[in-house]
Design a protein that fits this description.
Blueprint: H1 3-9, E1 11-15, H2 23-27, E2 31-37, H3 46-55, E3 65-70, H4 76-95, H5 108-126
Length: 127
């Protein structure tokens, strides 16, 4: 993953935000919409694209475009920073390779302890 190339490929769009804010909401476009085309990205190799497609299927459109929005702050610049951080957090989480789970054997001492407990409960019930 090459962050510099990906940063250049991100498209930002400012939209009017909803919610509280008084008259400021009616005239200032503070909400930021981030769009990223996963399919045509040069910052990711094919293996990374496949992994992201698998992990981010619920967040991607049919054209494999990731859309994120942020209207937490009244400042457009702060919203842009927040959505960019969120975007890279999602990318790094999606690219993380899960550890392979290896089955372990149950230790002999644990098996013997379980069998001994069964025997003792059986003898208690016999009496």
């Amino acid at each position: 993953m090459n962050k510099e190339i990906i940063l250049a490929e991100i498209k930002f769009k400012a939209v009017r935000s909803s919610g509280a804010g008084g008259q400021n909401v009616n005239k200032v476009s503070s909400k930021v919409v981030l769009t990223f085309d996963l399919e045509n990205s040069f910052g990711l190799n094919e293996e990374e694209k496949l992994r992201l497609k698998e992990k981010l299927t619920s967040k991607l459109t049919l054209e494999n475009i990731l859309i994120l929005t942020c209207d937490e702050d009244r400042s457009q610049l702060k919203n842009k920073e927040i959505v960019t951080k969120r975007f890279f957090k999602i990318l790094t989480a999606g690219l993380k390779v899960p550890n392979i789970r290896r089955e372990t054997k149950v230790p002999r001492a644990v098996k013997e302890k379980r069998l001994l407990a069964k025997k003792t409960t059986a003898t208690v019930k016999q009496k």
